[in-house]
Design brief:
With 495 residues, this protein is an alpha/beta fold. The chain has 14 helices and 19 strands. Helix 11 crosses helix 14. It is elongated. The two termini are 41 Å apart. The mean pLDDT is 95.
Length: 495
């Protein structure tokens, strides 16, 4: 079922219009679609009577009347100066959620996300799809969802941007549905099947799955070591999109796929352990990004690698003090079995180098330290190239999927040294936990342009209504879109 918004060039009598306005000091300012009606008697009376929404995000539903046969909805967008892509997007999603029983909604939103209508249409469609797509729900008596038709009102053609935004929104939903699936269902085998489905549905995408016997033959000791405490077999998933020229070096994404993380022998506290279903969010995000890039038909080559397993305590589990040999040949002293993500990513990053990539980006719910540093607003960004970091930061700002650059330093690498192995998986010194984890990963990329996105604080919400946020799919797709655009711009024109 498609949830993509459609474009119309005029008000439709059978649709409920949703119009926005800004606050500018003590004044209220109409958005473009509301300008003509702003001085009408109806709007004048609403303002003078004090019925207009007074707080950012508030809505007023006006009943049907002569000028508005279906009524209308007025939405307070806050101040234009303080608006952000994610903030406005969240208001769009909330409005659609509250109005989901209305058969047809018409948004006059061309300037809600800024002056560029194409960017606005793309962000609008992305959020519409997110709002309308069904959520994971296992309740016995769950009601069948009701879907509204959502229309975009514009006198210029943004249909291409709307389609692009819908593709990105669909990929975000794909990540959310994967991440929200409980761990007894979302196993490594489940992720493998999802990768195969993406490949099956896209002509230029292929899937390769390495299962336990192949992992053992290759010596992927990081992934195998973490998995040995579980009866569920591990897998290394590879999803490849060939949209560029045959000799174009690919971008490689590596996503952490711990489908449940109890901490292993270094057992986590019981409180909020249920949220550890989200420890495969990195894997879900890179698989979903391939889906989006294929749907957008970007002229690049892209590979997603997702090492997947469970991290459980048992008589066969890794023990603190064990030494394992990773796929790279480097040995690691495992001092804390709950620092497992970096062990499977080590094998994934080494696998990535086999593709001779132009750059590598890994995505992982890696450290609680990143949550302490940045909370739930920013994804932690580490990079060994300034230009790569800047481009990722820009993509995040443009989409509202924000990242904040964090420090890498040789001192952090030194803290990850072991007396008995090439590396330790945790530092013996308290502090800088997100940076020492990133420094550990950096040793496996061998100088290749690389970035690490620590999404521990941004991948999901917690508590009773815990849910995946879909981050950082929007950031990754926008980065790859910009990369494809810059590639097109530098190619010689065809004769």
């Amino acid at each position: 079922m498609s949830f993509a918004p459609m474009q119309v060039t005029a008000m439709k009598a059978e649709s409920l219009p949703v119009l926005g306005f800004w606050k500018d000091g003590d004044s209220l300012v109409p958005t473009q679609a509301a300008t003509d009606a702003w001085s009408s008697p109806l709007f004048e009376s609403l303002r003078t009577s004090g019925l207009f929404p007074s707080q950012k995000g508030e809505m007023l539903t006006v009943p049907p009347c002569t000028d508005w046969p279906k009524g209308l909805v007025l939405l307070h967008l806050g101040t234009r100066a303080e608006s952000t892509p994610e903030g406005v997007g969240a208001m769009v999603r909330t409005a659609i959620s509250k109005l989901h029983k209305v058969p047809s909604l018409l948004f006059g939103a061309t300037d809600w996300f800024g002056d560029n209508r194409e960017i606005g249409a793309r962000l609008f469609a992305q959020n519409v799809v997110r709002a309308l797509a069904p959520k994971v729900n296992y309740k016995k008596d769950a009601e069948a969802p009701q879907y509204s038709e959502v229309l975009w009102l514009s006198d210029t053609d943004e249909s291409k941007a709307l389609a692009e935004g819908a593709a990105i929104g669909t990929a975000i939903v794909e990540m959310c549905q994967l991440a929200d699936t409980p761990a007894n269902l979302c196993t490594p085998a489940f992720l493998c099947e999802e990768a195969r489905n993406i490949a099956k549905n896209h002509e230029k995408v292929s899937a390769t799955i390495l299962e336990k016997p192949e992992l053992e033959a290759l010596g992927m000791g990081g992934l195998l070591g973490v998995a040995q405490g579980s009866t569920v077999p591990p897998a290394m998933i590879e999803l490849r999109y060939d949209g560029g020229k045959r000799d174009d070096a690919p971008v490689v994404l590596v996503g952490k796929g711990i489908t449940f993380d109890a901490g292993g022998i270094s057992l986590k506290p019981a409180a909020k352990m249920g949220d550890m279903i989200y420890d495969m969010s990195g894997a879900a995000s890179v698989l979903a990004t391939v889906q989006a890039v294929a749907d957008l038909a970007l002229p690049i080559n892209l590979v997603a690698i997702a090492p997947a397993c469970e991290n459980l305590p048992s008589g066969t589990a890794l023990k603190p003090g064990d030494i394992i040999t990773t796929y790279s040949g480097r040995t690691v002293e495992v001092q804390n079995t709950d620092a497992e993500g970096r062990l499977i990513l080590a094998d994934g990053l080494t696998k990535a180098l086999e593709h001779k990539p132009q750059l590598v980006i890994d995505v992982a719910t890696l450290t609680g330290a990143c949550v302490v540093a940045l909370g739930n607003t920013y994804t932690g960004l580490f990079a060994n190239r300034d230009d790569l970091a800047e481009k990722l930061l820009y993509a995040g700002k443009k989409t509202g999927d924000l990242a904040w650059r964090m420090p890498l330093h040789s001192d952090y690498t030194e803290l990850m040294q072991s007396s008995y192995a090439d590396l330790a998986n945790v530092s013996a010194v308290r502090g800088a936990g997100a940076s020492t984890a990133a420094a550990f990963l950096e040793t496996f990329v061998e100088g290749t342009p690389w970035a690490h996105l620590d999404i521990a604080g941004t991948a999901n919400t917690s508590g009773k209504d815990h849910a995946s946020t879909g981050r950082p799919v929007a950031l990754l797709v926008e980065f790859l879109r910009e990369l494809a655009e810059s590639k097109k711009a530098t190619e010689p024109a065809s004769v």
